[in-house]
Task: structure prediction
Amino acid sequence: MIIVHNDDGLEITIGFNDQSLDALEIVKSLPNIKFIKRHRVWQVPTYNLLSLEDRLKRAGIRYKIINNTTKLNNGADFNFKLEPFPYQKDGFEYGKQTFGYILADDPGLGKSKQLIDIATYKKSAYGYKHCLIIPCVKELSTNWVREIQKNSDELACIIGEGINGRYINENGEKVKSELYDRLTHLERIPDEYFWILNIESLRFDPIKELLRKYIKRGIISMVAVDEIHYLKSPTSQQGKGLLSLSDCKDKVCITGTPIENSPLDGYITLKFLGQIKQTWTAFKDFYCEYGGYGGHQIIRYRNMDIYQRAFKNVMLRRKKEDVFDLPEKIIGNEYLDMNEKQRKLYEDVKLRIKADIDKILLSPNPLAAYTRLRQATAHTSILSTTVSESVKFERLYSKLEDINEKFIVFSSWAEVTEMLYKFLKKFNPVVVNGNVDPKVRQCEIDIFQNDDKCKVILGTYRTLGVGYNLTAARRVEHFDNPWSMSTKNQANDRAHRIGTTGVINVNTMLCRDTIDERIDELIENKGAICDFIIDGRIVGDRKKLLEFLLS
Result:
């Protein structure tokens, strides 16, 4: 195989030998390729080079690269804060030279890291002023800040955070307003390179108009929309708001599920990127055939070849099974923002603990007093008959809807797993906790392992986290942390064991600025927890530990 590296891309010629079929199969699996019959060569974008070399080496296929490039590689001296996997470098190369596309890798392949690296590079290469990130899942704003801190030295801010202003309403009263806080923050033009703004802000005309102004003036150089598949209706306020920002010169749509249920779901994405010019009505008329009662029901879709080409022209998508350089486990945290009601209940519980701290210090097991604080981040109805809120419940539900893989969900409390069992009925869950008869537990596990309709198994660390084989799962969600890292690792190994055929994604849900983060710091700090706690009992400095958990 001969690979000629030109300024415009790669030209690949495959000779006739015992390796030809294997080489052809690898080349055909690459995205955005084209075969030129006249010259009998494959044209392949440059960003595929690293991935192609990796695959050829793994398959033992002989190849030669002829470098005919004359342009400098602007990213050759780019210093990644965290070294990416080869397929992420391919994504970086693609994003460097593309100014409007869909980053549609499978969930768990690190799309946020690729976006952060690309945006950071473009600041130095092209003088970008600010990158605006719009999460369509509002609870994930803090998670973006953490990802940016981990993958870049650039600063990030959540628009509106820390303003806490008072505004005159139509009745002449001074009131709080998150939308006006965000507007005030934007008017100051924050110094941070990355701006994070929740999608619902685009319902507010003053914010929308200010963003359009900043795009026109070049203050906002890049707009990235995370989980864009949640935006389905171009007639909604949020849909209209996003489309009003289409004039930005550099746009990235991030999603692991580019088309969820209907081809119509892709309209906002394609329109935002400028890939289509049709109005919403013209788009539906072109791709839908109507019939049924009154002639207003969609009976089938048409022109799907044109639709697929429109997506393929602007989409970079890699599936897990096509990526050969993944680790066996991908481990991460997800930082979630509680809403106002959940936060208030949490702070009330925290104040009561602080008031009783002297009594708690003298009790046989002080950590038991912190259980209520931990449960407040799980679901408020465990502690309250009037408040029923949980950012973790909502986030887990949306993940199960978006990701077509089986999940194991661990919690420290049987009560949480039983509440989740009712909440997640749509996904045919099974539950294994201390309240389930031991004779029934294996039956529940067999259902999870063998029934495709059963998408999630819920269990406690003490019961489900030891001894069982759950190799059907590709996702492990820690709804809360146990006190011991060994307990957590043992729970992870229910999925990651002999018989597992793919990569396991392990995630821990943490509510921002709560005891969740403190416990995670302790158990992740390689053994530091052992200085304080053994088997859930404090053996070190009680006061020091308890004050840290409340900090």
